[in-house]
Amino acid sequence: MKNTASNYKTLLYITGCCFFMLLTTATYAQTQMRGKVEVIKDPRVDTLIARKLNAGGGSTQGGYSSSGYRVQVYTGSDRAAAYKAQAKFQQNYPDISAYITYREPDFKVRVGDFRTRLEATKMMEQLRPWFPLMFIIAEKINPPKLDSDTH
Predict the structure, then answer these.
(1) R_g (Cα) of the chain, nearest Å
(2) Is the entire prediction scored with pTM above 0.70?
(3) What pLDDT, in 10s, does the model give residues 27-61?
(4) With contact defined as beta carbons under 8 Å apart, do 79 and 109 qualify?
(5) Of 38, 12, 11, 15, which Cα lies nearest the Cα of 26?
């Protein structure tokens, strides 16, 4: 995974250098010849830019995330149990997101995108009957959509 990230960084660096050289050449050509400059761009540049924007935050809201809290309701090495915990949560709270992550050897199910620790604590108290062992985790969250009607 680190190798892939390194390849992308290298590719973005090379692309940036190409843009700089292209702009420098175009500027020089315009000042020397006073003619028409035609720039031909490789379509893969658009693909790289789109990948860079999508890789930024992982959020559905313009690709940004912020610091916040989630409640971890399951930790264990059983994949089926992790999906079962996620389904149990989604059955009771369909409007709140649940995330499954895997870091060897454990699966973790974390729920919610809470801006404050107090919101996460309230959710944890509501979940106590279904999930006895829970933790509040500080991490990057996908901020909830703001209602445009409240302005």
Answers:
(1) 23
(2) no
(3) 554 555 567 777 787 777 777 777 766 665 444 44
(4) no
(5) 38
